[in-house]
Design a protein that fits this description.
Elements lengths: L5 H11 L3 H10 L4 H11 L14 E8 L5 E9 L2 H4 L2 H15 L4 E2 L4 H14 L4 E9 L4 E7 L5 E8 L4 H13 L14 H18 L3 H19 L5 E2 L2 E5 L8 E9 L5
Antiparallel strand pairs: 1-2, 2-4, 3-4, 5-6, 6-9, 7-8
């Protein structure tokens, strides 16, 4: 039997907002696979789980840095043992230094270089906590492209977005705020960007629901397709109701601009 860590239990609780004992039991049944455990819980509850609260386990901070000339942008997460340390100005400075170092690196996943390691070691020594560089990612810029960002006031959630076309910085920042606040959490810019494993899992779940309903095949198929359309509208960013003005969708405020990609990171998430 797979050993179930308290960290995994808390991570699953953060995804589902269900009691820890239920989460632990699901993880045990799933052999420790958190995605399979979430699916098991959802099946048992017929999809009627409480709304996600995205309460991630772990302490630390996430931040974003954008080059003044829009040549690149980076998002990084540094973790600490306690919230007290995460709120410390010295820790915030260390995270900012790590982000500045990440900005110097090539596009893609950021591995800790000497500069990042030194920034984290500095705060580790000053706080006597086991602080660590959790992850980072660098976006490269380009002609006609621009970046938007938002870091929540507690430093635990941040968004980095890249767009193409004419759109001002304030509008991009507000879209990043939307990404932070939106429920359900957006998982792709458009329906085509949603990861195949998420789409397949959702379709499988809806097929099982339709079959259990006992409806004729033709009606069951329509139920599945209708449900999938609703699902895409809920989790594709540009199809979501804009949180600042729910009478509009995100795509309605873009004008001729196009969102290319985005990252929404929260402290303690599984990288």
């Amino acid at each position: 039997m797979a050993e179930i860590s308290s960290k995994d239990v808390m991570a699953l609780r953060g995804r589902t907002n269900l009691p820890m004992m239920d989460c632990k039991a699901a993880l045990a049944e799933a052999g420790g696979d958190i995605n399979k455990a979430e699916e098991l819980l959802r099946k048992k509850l017929k999809g009627k789980m409480d709304a996600r609260t995205d309460r991630a386990a772990g302490e630390g901070r996430v931040t974003v840095v954008i080059a003044p000339d829009q040549s690149g942008a980076a998002i990084v997460e540094v973790r600490s043992e306690t919230d007290f340390t995460a709120k410390n100005d010295g820790f915030g400075n260390a995270v900012a230094k790590a982000a500045a170092e990440a900005l110097k690196l090539p596009e893609g996943k950021v591995e800790a270089n000497a500069g990042i390691t030194a920034a984290v070691d500095e705060i580790r020594i000053s706080t006597s906590e086991n602080c660590s560089f959790a992850r980072g990612f660098k976006y490269a810029g380009g002609a006609g492209k621009s970046f938007g960002s938002y870091v929540h006031h507690d430093g635990k959630t941040a968004v980095l977005l890249q767009a193409e076309g004419t759109i001002d910085a304030e509008a991009l920042a507000k879209i990043c705020m939307h990404i932070t606040a939106a429920v359900p959490r957006p998982v792709g810019v458009t329906a085509d960007d949603i990861p195949a494993e998420i789409v397949d899992r959702e379709r499988k779940f809806r097929i099982e629901q339709a079959m259990e309903s006992g409806k004729p095949k033709e009606i069951a198929e329509k139920m599945v397709e209708g449900g999938m359309r609703k699902f895409f509208e809920e989790v594709a960013l540009i199809e979501q109701p804009y949180v600042i003005d729910p009478t509009k969708k995100v795509k309605d405020i873009l004008g001729t601009a196009k969102i290319l990609r985005f990252l929404r990171w929260q402290v303690g998430e599984q990288a």
